[in-house]
Write a structure and sequence with these properties.
By secondary structure, the protein is an alpha+beta fold. It has one domain: Nucleoside Triphosphate Pyrophosphohydrolase (Alpha-Beta Complex). It is built from three helices and nine strands. It has a four-stranded mixed β-sheet with strand order 4-1-7-6, with helices on both faces. The protein is globular and about 75 Å long.
Amino acid sequence: MKRFFVATLRATVSRAMPYVARLTRPLTMGVRAMVLDGEGHVCLIRHSYVAGWHMPGGAIEPGETASEALARELWEETGLAIQGTPELFGLYLNRRWSARDHVAVYIIRAFERTNHRPDPREIIDVGFFPLDALPEGTTGPTRRRLAEVLERHEPTPHW
C-alpha cells in the first residue's frame, strides 16, 4: 500500500511541477529587430506608452516561435516584412521588468516595405535614421546593441 501511495504521489507531483514552476518562476521572452538598410540607417520606433526610440519588437505570445513573433511585431510596428532569415545576435536578461525577462535580438538586413501602417494608439513614430546621427532619446539598450553589432563592442548579458 505504501509503494502505491508513494508512486501515485510522485506521478501527481511530476505532472504538477510545470504548473507550479509557471506560477513561482515565470519566464518571459521578447524579441527586438535591428533592421539595417544598405545605406547605413537603422529602423527605430517610438511607443505611445514608453519614452524613447527603440528597436521594433515585443513579447513572444504563447504557442509562437521567436521567429514568428519577430515577423509579427516588425510588421505590426513598422509595416516591414522580413525577407530571408534574420540573424540571431544575442539573448539578454532584462532586469527592468523582472529577474526572468529575456530579450532576443535579431539582425535584419533584407526586408520589404508594405502598405501596412502601425496602430497610432501604440506606435507614434517610425523612421530610418543614420547610424551616426540617432535621434535624441534613443534608449541606452538600443545604443548598446548597435555598438555591439556595428562597432564590435563586447556584448553584455544584460539589456
